[in-house]
Structure formats: C-alpha cells, structure tokens
Amino acid sequence: MRLLSIFLFLLFAHASFAQNLTGIWRGKRTQGAQGCFPEYGLELHIEYSNEQLIMGNAYSYVSREQFTKTIFKGRYNPQTKRLVLIESSVLSYNVPPQCIPCIKTYQLNFAVKEKEETLEGQWTGHEMGNSHACSPGNIALHREVQPIFPVTVQQTDSLAELQQRISLKQRDKEVVETLKVDTSRIRIDLYDNAEIDDDTVSVFLNGALLLYKKRLTDRPLTLNINAMPNSDYELMMYAENLGRIPPNTSLMIVTAGKKKYEIRISSSETKSAVVKFRYDLR
C-alpha cells in the first residue's frame, strides 16, 4: 500500500509539472468604479516552457477596434497551480481619449472545472507613463482553440533591438514544405546539408528574427517553438552567403510530438526558402 501511495504521488506530481499552459486564454477582466469600463474582454497568448517560465502577450479590449496590447513575463508553480504574470510595457493601443492603459500584474489559479481548463484570480496595476494605481479587479479565463487577435512571435530583447538595425535585401520566397502538427511544442534542428562549406543563415519566424548570421555545420542550430493553436507560422531561411559551394543548402529536421520530418532546403541571393506549419486544435 505504501509503494502504491508513493507511485500515485509521483504520478500526480509529474502530471502537474507537465501541465502545458501554452495557448489562447480568453474571458473577462473587471475593474473598479474609477476605471474606464466596468468590464473588459481579455485574451492571453501564453508561451510556457519546461522551466516553468511564462511569456506572451495580453489583449484587453472592449471591441476588436478598441484594445490595449501588452507584453508580459511570469512563472507558474505546478505544485500550487498558481500563475503570476507581470506586464512590462504597452506595445500598442487604441482607447478613448479619457482612458489610460494599465500595466498590470496578474495573480491567477489554474483549475479544471467540468473538463474545462480555467485561469481565475485578480489583477492590480498602475497607469502607463506614471505610478498612479489603477482600480483593481477580477479575472476569469478559459482555454480557447482560436485567437481573436494576431499571434506575435516572442523574441529576446537583444534580437528585437538587432532586427531594428539590420536591413535585408528583397528576395522572393519559395515554400518548400507545409506541415500540420498535433502539438504546440515544436523543435527545429538545422544542419549543413552537404559538405560543410561555411554556409551562413539568418532565420525568421513570422517576420521575427530568431537566429542571426549563424554558420551551418554538422552540429544543429536548434529552435524550440511553442506554437499557438490554429495559427499559421512561416519559417524563413535567409542566406547570408552561399558558402564555398553555391547555393546555400541546409537540412531541417522538425520534431513535433512523435513525428519527425526531414526537409532539404536551398536558398540563394534571389530567393529565401520557407517552411510553413500549423498546430491544428479543434
């Protein structure tokens, strides 16, 4: 009996740790009497890693036209099922002139209610551009399979700053493969496809720079991507040179769950190779 209890405890702990919060969460956010509106729609685009780190974007809205988009980071505790998200800045907004967007901190609890995954809790915050406190409120969200607002690919601050400084030559795009996957977690490994001849590439995902001027070798350049459900992704290989033996060639190995795909790619000074993929969830 004692061994069975230990086994069940370990199984439960593993299941809690493995909880994947990556995806679209949507519902309502209330605000106190001094807020612009008593209730907002709220859509979180969450990316969750095995290290329990959280990042993503939040859309607070009263309509698709009136919204505030912010970026956040945070952590999830799988033992307590508590999630803390802290917004760092407002990326874009379109609100009535008398309204000031809030930069918020979320304290949320994960639960499964009648087979529906939920995030519920409270938020506090301050007005954008000053330290005046916003009237706090409550949050109630559930997992969705389709986003209302566009999904943004997350970058490190250094890559985002670098992308603003570089300029790319205009090139045609050639789609070499289109994949449908059944998991949000996708691993991409890039190798030189033939003789190692100093082929160098930059890699973009939906226009966001993820790798810059990296040399292809027999050791992989690895990208781990947390894909949002029912969203289209376009991975572009931009040849920074053609190596000693043109064209610039690479082998891409895509691992998605139990499936693995090998894709051979060729890029040149006039075209960039593109691989498209989509995580279908219904």
Q: What would your notes on this structure say?
A:
- The protein is mostly beta strands and 282 residues long.
- It folds into 2 domains: 2-144, Lipocalin; 157-279, Sandwich (Immunoglobulin-like), CATH 2.60.40.
- The chain contains 2 helices and 17 strands.
- The chain has helices at residues 2-17, 157-165, and strands spanning 23-30, 39-48, 53-61, 67-77, 82-94, 102-113, 116-127, 137-144, 172-181, 185-192, 200-205, 208-215, 221-226, 232-239, 248-256, 259-267, 271-279.
- The strands form 3 sheets. Strands 1-2-3-4-5-6-7-8 form an 8-stranded antiparallel β-barrel. Strands 9-17-14-11-12 form a 5-stranded mixed β-sheet.
- The longest helix is centred in the first third of the chain and has 16 residues, at 2-17.
- It is elongated.
- The protein starts with a helix and ends with a strand.
